[in-house]
Amino acid sequence: MKSLFLSCVIGFLISSNVMAASTNINMTANIINTSCQIAVKDNGQIDVGTVDFEYLNNNTSVDQIYSGGSPFFITVSNCAQVSGKNPTRLTFSFTPVSGALSPTNQQVFANQSTGGASNVGIVILSIQDAQNVFNVLDINGQPRSIYSVNPDELINATYHFYARMQKASPTQSISSGLVKASVLVAVYYE
């Protein structure tokens, strides 16, 4: 039986026709100096407090401010010109450092605490304009915090955000425990 299997594998390897093709690709790139300095309130240590099940079950919108969270700000300064031109757009990109976004809601940063609360994560909202509060991520988990800027705002500007806990899936139950999310904030402009 073993030799029959080996014979079949060898026969397959010998009888299979392998064809390949190759080509060269020429690539060009342009490197620009687009670095800014950014600083996050309290060195990025944000405590969103303690909430109960009722809070999580009643506050279901990922785009609204509910009490029980924490405001924070990010200061952007000393941005260089891009190819001699002043940038007009500034984008904040929030991504999980490790782990992922919630598999049931790409606008919620998944809980990274081992043995912590289940079906609970963190949302971050832009509160730069009190009349236009929104989740920093769109429904696909892509950056949504894009601001029009003028050159003075790239010298030293403060952008305001709000973090709070969020039930990831409204149809699933939650359990109590620690909630933790490590988020990388990248700022880029063009």
Automatic annotation (TrEMBL):
Annotated signal peptide: 1-20
Q: Which UniProt keywords apply?
A: Signal
> A GO BP term, please?
cell adhesion involved in single-species biofilm formation
GO CC annotation, single: pilus
Query: SUPFAM superfamilies of this UniProt entry?
Result: Bacterial adhesins (SSF49401)
Domain Fimbrial-type adhesion, chain residue ranges per copy: 25-189
Answer yes or no on keyword Signal: yes
User: Keyword Electron transport: yes or no?
Assistant: no
Return the protein name: Fimbrial protein
Natural source organism: [Enterobacter] lignolyticus
